Amino acid sequence: MRVVTCMMWMASLAYALPHGCVDTQQSVDAAAKLARTVISDTGIGTIMTLMDGSINPDFEGHPFGLMEYYNGDCYKNGDLLLFMSDLQMNARNAREQPNKVSFTVRALKDYNPSWGNRSTPVEQPRVAMMGEIKLVNESPNDDELMKCFATKHPEAKAWQQFHDFHFYRFQVESLYYVGGFGGINYIGWLPLHKYQHASNHGHMHLQ
Q1: Burial per residue of 24-46, b for 16 or more beta-carbon CB atoms within 10 angstroms, e otherwise
Q2: Average pLDDT over residues 85-113
Q3: What's the whole-number average pLDDT of the chain?
Q4: CA separation, residue 15 to residues 10, 51, 179, 182, 191 (Å)
Q5: Predicted TM-score (pTM) of this structure
Q6: 203 part of a folded domain
Q7: How far is 152 from 162, CA to CA, in rounded Å?
Q8: CB neighbours (10 Å) of residue 17?
Q9: CA proximity to 102, closest of 65, 67, 52
Q10: Residue 12: which residues within 8 A CB-CB, separation 6 or more?
Q11: Where are the beta strands (DSSP E) in 28-125?
C-alpha cells in the first residue's frame, strides 16, 4: 500500500523531482535504451530556443518552442538531424545563440503497460535534451543528408527546391528523462554516454 501511494504521489510530481521516493523498477541502462528508442521512433518534437532581441525585443531571452521534424537515426551517438527553413523562428534564434537550445520528445505510442483500461500520455516516456545546434551544410541539396533525413520524413525531399532550407545537427549534451510513473519508471538525468552507446537498431549513420 505504501509503495502504491508513494508511486501515485510521484506521478503528480514527475516534473519536479529527479528520482522516485522508492527504488525504481527501471534501471538507468534500460531507461537510456528506451529513451534512444523513443527518439528513434518518433521523429517529431519541440525545439526550444531563446528569443533574440533583434526579432522581438519585447520578449528577448524568453523561451520559444515550436514543433519540428528531426531524424534521430542519422548519427551514431544519437544527435538529431534537422532540416529547417530560415523563416522558422527557432532557426533564426539558434543562429544567434546556438548553445542555448533544447529539444523535447514524447512517446506517440505505448511503451509502458497501461493502468486500467487504456494508457494515457503521462504514463509513457518523454525526454528533454539540452545541447548545441550547428549548421551542417549551407546547401539544401546535400544528397547524403537528405537520404537519411527522408527515411523518416520523405515529404522533405520536395523542400530542397526552397533555398531557405538548411540541415542542422543538434548535438545532445544532456538529457532529462521521465519514463512514466515514478517508482516504476526511471525519472532523472541520464548519463550522456549511456544514451550515446544505446543501440538504435543499426540504422544508417552519417560521418
Answers
A1: bebeeebbbbbbbbbbbbbbebe
A2: 93
A3: 85
A4: 9, 24, 11, 10, 18
A5: 0.83
A6: no
A7: 19
A8: 13
A9: 65
A10: none
A11: 44-50, 63-69, 80-85, 101-106
Per-residue pLDDT band for 24 (boundaries 50, 70, 90) equals: low
User: Which CATH number characterizes residue 168's domain?
Assistant: 2.30.110.10
Please give the residue range of the domain that contains residue 124. 2-197
pLDDT: is 62 or 119 the higher one? Answer: 62
pLDDT at residue 201 in the model: 57
- Name residues whose C-beta falls within 8 Å of residue 58's C-beta, 6 or more positions apart in sequence: none
* DSSP letter assigned to residue 79: P
Q: Specify if 177 maps to a domain.
A: yes
pLDDT one-digit tens code per residue, 157-187 = 999 989 899 999 999 999 999 998 877 889 9
Q: How many domains does the chain have?
A: 1
* All three cell numbers of 128: 528533454
Amino acid code (one letter) for 28: V
Per-residue pLDDT at 117? 54
Cell triple for 55: 526579432
67 sits in the region (left: phi over 0; alpha: psi -120 to 50; else beta) called: beta
Closest CA to 141 of 119, 117, 166: 166
Q: Residue 205: inside a domain, yes or no?
A: no
Residue 206 domain-assigned (yes or no) = no
